[in-house]
Predict the structure.
Amino acid sequence: MAQLNPEGTLPPAVAIEEAGLDRARLVDLYRWMVVIRRADAEALNLQRQGELGLWGQFLGQEAAQVGATLALHPDDWIFPSYREFGMGMCRGIDPAAMLYLFRGLTHGGWDPASHHFAPLAIPVASQVLHAVGYALGCKFDHSSQVVLACFGDGATSEGDWHEGMNFAGVFKCPVVFLCQNNHWAISVPLEKQTAGRIAERAAGYGFPGVRIDGNDVLTVYAVVRAAAERARRGDGPTLIEAVTYRMGAHSSADDPTRYRSDDQLAAWSPRDPIVRYEAWLLAEGHLDDARAGAIRAEADAVAQTMRTKLVNAPVPPPSEVLFDRVYTSPSRTFQAERDEFAATLEPSE
Ligand SMILES: Cc1ncc(C[n+]2csc(CCOP(=O)(O)OP(=O)(O)O)c2C)c(N)n1
Ligand SMILES: [Mg+2]
């Protein structure tokens, strides 16, 4: 398994090719981390400027999101929490359309089936049940697809999480459970709600659990890829605890200076997933300053396009926001409810 050191060096024994990583793929991992970090920063700016109701940064968690998404086949499904915006970008979803949710313009913003990317789940751990259910369906269909279930450390305290884990273990569902252990559940630190190690809980459900450096994009890529192939072979689930750190606030409505010290941020800064990976790519000659500069310029352009599209997005009628995207084929009753609701609106709405 690849193990990128904080200084951006790898032990010599690491076989990058074995993990299916050629130079183009190596640079792609970097490119996506830079692009999603820039979009994340822009989204926070937009919230501060009153253009978004709320924003949940994922600063510091780019390696977990990019490494895991790129390790999957494009038709594997991802069931995200609210923090996996970067994964959605890696799946080719228009970032402005994803932000419509945070501007109050939609409950969705993209077609999950087109991107194999489910809606962002706000109720903590609810997406774990959806993921396992979908994975069981894949098994019934003899499909080669696997499912990635994403959640945080706090989610592992929820009943839904344990039910999903148990069900997946019993029925050997083709699912990879990815915990981004960022050490915080809003203002509750890991140690105040989790006794023992998250990865070790998998043993209780009859499948393997592994704890990895979630800020090392190569490790995340290699481990998620191996777990996905195991699931694809019919050997069942794996729990991956990707240890990372939430460098920003829980959300734009949170002030972490009230409950955590600068010392913790200072301790995690040197483990920044982009800085260490960039150092390694440059040292190995996979990247040069010109290419890195071009990637940063591309990231700026993506952020600018996202901003322009967002602030110019038309406000849809309320009945569209509430009733569209609920059913593929709405029933007559549902359509009647929609019409009834529409009739109560003022003409300008
Ligand atoms: C069922 C449920 N309970 C409580 C909340 C409020 N809530 C939102 S995020 C959060 C913390 C989740 O922490 P974690 O799972 O570690 O994810 P992170 O935010 O760190 O990515 C809580 C308690 C919620 N959204 N859903
Ligand atoms: Mg957390």
Remarks:
- Strands lie at 77-79, 147-152, 175-181, 184-185, 188-189, 209-213, 238-243.
- Residues 83, 122-124, 151-155, 182, 184-186, 246, 250 surround thiamine diphosphate (ligand 1) (CB under 6 Å).
- DSSP finds 13 helices and seven strands in the chain.
- The first helix runs from residue 23 to 48.
